[in-house]
Write a structure and sequence with these properties.
2 copies of one chain form a homodimer.
Chain A: E1 6-12, E2 25-31, E3 40-48, H1 52-57, E4 76-84, E5 94-97, E6 104-107, E7 112-116, H2 132-144, E8 152-156, H3 161-172, E9 176-181, H4 184-193, E10 198-201, H5 207-214, E11 219-224, H6 228-234, E12 238-246, H7 250-254, H8 263-268, E13 272-275, H9 285-297, E14 305-309, H10 314-322, E15 329-333
Parallel strand pairs in A: 8-9, 8-11, 9-10, 11-12, 12-13, 14-15
Antiparallel strand pairs in A: 1-2, 3-4, 3-6, 3-15, 4-5, 5-7
Helix pairs in contact in A: 2-3
Chain lengths: 339, 339
C-alpha cells in the first residue's frame, strides 16, 4: 500500500467560546516532515477523539498551551514509526503518541504516551480498552474502590470506553452492574455488548425510579464519569459506607454549570469519595495489559468503537462527540495498520 | 447536701427561624416526677450544650420531633440515678442520658447515652473528652484517617472538644498539628492547653498566608468540623492523596449558606474524603475510654470547659454557644456531683 506523500492536517481556524462548530476547523496540508537528530517520523493510523481536546485547544487543560489560528489541533493517535533518528525508536514500531490531527508527525520520545505490542489485541484498542481509558478503569477497580461479590456497582457514561471497561471488570469481580447513559442506543451497548445487568437512560422520565428498581439492595460503589449534579441525585440510593470514585473531567467540574456537592448527605451515608487521575497508574499499565488482553482474547472483555474514515472527517466526528452522540470510543481511521 | 424538691425546667416559649434569642425560652417548674415500673429517676449534674440542639428543637435533627411551646428543651447531661424501678439501673449510678433541660427526669434505659465509671476521669468529661466528642475524635484518628509521624494535620474548630481531642491525639501520633479557630482566645487554648504546633485565626486578614507558613510541607490530613467553604479554600494546600474527614454537622451542610464542594480540585489532589458519624464507633467506646483516660491521668490529653452555673443560666449559655463565643465545651453545672 502506498502512503500519501503529503501531510494532511486539521488546523484551528478560529478560537471561540461555547460548543465548537465546523467553521472552527480547516483542512490544510504540507510536505511530509523530515525527522532531525534524536527525532522520528510517525504516520497516524487511529486518531483518538476525546472530550479533553476542546479544553486543550483553549489552553484550559494541563500541559496544553492555547492554540492560535492555523495551528494543528491537539490529539493522540495510534501511530507507526516510518523513519527514526532516535536510538530508542525503530522503524515499524507501533505506539500511542501525541501526533495532533495530521497524517504524519515528527516527534521526540517525550511525545510517546504508550508503546504498543500488537500481539496484545487489535491496534485500535491501544487508545481504548488497552490504553488510557482502560487503565483509568483499572485504577478505579484495582486501586480505589475494588468491587466484590454481591456489590451493587453503578457507573455513569456507561457506553464509553472508561465506563464500559469499569462495568465489565466489576461484573467479572462478581458485582451486579448498573450503567447510566443517555439514550437507548448507548444503553443497548451497555446491556448487549458489555453485558451489564441493567442500564438506565437518564434522558427518560422516571429514570430515578428505574434506577432504584435496578438497585434493590442500594448502591455500594459508584464510578462517576460525569460530575456533581448526578452524584448529588445518586447519594440518596447509596448504602452506608458507599464508595465513590470521582473520575469526571476536572476541567468540567470547575465550571459553574456542573454545580457542587453538599457534604451533608455524604456524611449521613458515611460515604468515601476519592479522586482518580489516570497518570498515577502508569506504572501499573503492564499488569493491566496482561489482565485485559487475556480477558479480551477470552471474549470476557468487550469494546465498542465509533469510527470515522479519513482525516477530513475528523472535525465532524469530533462535533458528534461534543454533542454526546457518539456510541463507544470515538476514533478516526486515518491510515492503514500495515505498511 | 439537700437536693431541690421541685423540678426546675427550661421550656420552649416560641418556635422561630434564624438564631434563637432569650425570648424563645422560659423557666418553669413542676413536682419532682416519680418513676413508674421499668423507669428510673435521675437528677441532672452537668448539662451538655451542643449546636445540634437548635436543629432538634425544630425537628430538623434525626430522632427529634419538633417541639411545641411549653415543651422542655432537648439535651443530654451527666446525671445520677436517684430512684430506680428498673432492674438494670441502680440508685447512685452515673450516666450520660437524654434528660432535657431540667433538674430531674424520669427515664427508661433507651434514654441512656453512656454509662459512666467515675474512676475514668472528672465526671464532666463524660460529655466531652471522655464522651461523644472524644469518641468522634477517635473515629477520625483511629478509623478514618490515622495520622503518623511527620504528617501535617489540620483541624478546624480547634478549641472545641472534638477539634481539641483530634489535634492532641494527632500530636501523640507524631503529626505536626495546626488548628484553625475564630479569635485569639480560642487559638490560645489550642496552643497553650492543647499544645498544637500552630493555630490560625481565620478571622484575621492574611490567615491563608499564615496557614501556608504554618504548613511548610503541605497538608496531609484535614479533619473538618465546619463545612464546605473552608474546605474549598484548604484544598489548595493539600498534598497529593490528602485525606479529609468530613465531620461537620450535616444539618448545617445542607443549608445554602454553607455552599458546596467542586470536585475538580479534589480530583486533582487525588484527595480521599470520608464522612464521619460518631454512632458508628459506639462499640469502640470502651477501648477509647481506656486509651483516653490513661492519657488524661498522665496529663498528655487535656480539655477545656466553659461552665455556666445553675439551670436558669442555660438559655444565656446556649445563646453564647450559638454566637460562637464559647471557648471550650459548653456546660451548665445544674446539681452537685455527690449525694
Amino acid at each position: 500500500m502506498n502512503l500519501p506523500n503529503r501531510n494532511a492536517q486539521v488546523r484551528l481556524r478560529r478560537q471561540r467560546d461555547g460548543l465548537p462548530d465546523a467553521g472552527d476547523f480547516q483542512m490544510g496540508d504540507g510536505p511530509v516532515p523530515e525527522p532531525g537528530d534524536g527525532e522520528f517520523l510517525v504516520r497516524t493510523i487511529y486518531l483518538s477523539l476525546d472530550p479533553y481536546i476542546r479544553k486543550a485547544i483553549r489552553g484550559d487543560h494541563p500541559g496544553h498551551a492555547v492554540l492560535s489560528a492555523g495551528d494543528v489541533i491537539y490529539g493522540r493517535a495510534v501511530a507507526r514509526v516510518v523513519k527514526s533518528r532516535h536510538a530508542g525508536v525503530k522503524q515499524g514500531d507501533y505506539m500511542v503518541a501525541e501526533t495532533g490531527w495530521q497524517s504524519y508527525a515528527v516527534l521526540t520520545p517525550k511525545k510517546i504516551v504508550q508503546r504498543i505490542d500488537p500481539a496484545m489485541g487489535p491496534l485500535s484498542t491501544a487508545i481504548g480498552v488497552l490504553g488510557m481509558p482502560g487503565l483509568t478503569a483499572w485504577g478505579s477497580i484495582a486501586h480505589l474502590a475494588p468491587p466484590t461479590v454481591g456489590d451493587t456497582y453503578v457507573v455513569s457514561a456507561a457506553a464509553g470506553p472508561v465506563g464500559g471497561t469499569v462495568g465489565q471488570l466489576a461484573k467479572i469481580a462478581g458485582a451486579r452492574v448498573v450503567g447510566i447513559a443517555g439514550g437507548k442506543e448507548k444503553c443497548d451497548v451497555a446491556l448487549r455488548t458489555y453485558g451489564f445487568d441493567a442500564c438506565i437512560d437518564y434522558k427518560k422520565d422516571g429514570w430515578e425510579q428505574a434506577l432504584q428498581l435496578a438497585c434493590p439492595n442500594g448502591i455500594d460503589i459508584y464510578h462517576d464519569n460525569v460530575g456533581a449534579p448526578l452524584l448529588m441525585k445518586l447519594v440518596a440510593y447509596f448504602n452506608l459506607y458507599a464508595k465513590v470514585v470521582m473520575c469526571g473531567r476536572p476541567g468540567d467540574y470547575h465550571s459553574g454549570e456542573f454545580g457542587g456537592l453538599s457534604p451533608g448527605p455524604f456524611i449521613g451515608k458515611r460515604a468515601q469519595l476519592r479522586g482518580l487521575v489516570v497518570y498515577d497508574y502508569e506504572k501499573d499499565l503492564p499488569r493491566y495489559l496482561r489482565v485485559a488482553s487475556t480477558l479480551l482474547r477470552e471474549g470476557r472483555l468487550r469494546f465498542k468503537e465509533d469510527h470515522a474514515d479519513g482525516i477530513e472527517d475528523t472535525p465532524g466526528h469530533f462535533l458528534k462527540l461534543m454533542r454526546g452522540e457518539n456510541v463507544g470510543k470515538a476514533i478516526v481511521a486515518v491510515g492503514p495498520e500495515k505498511g
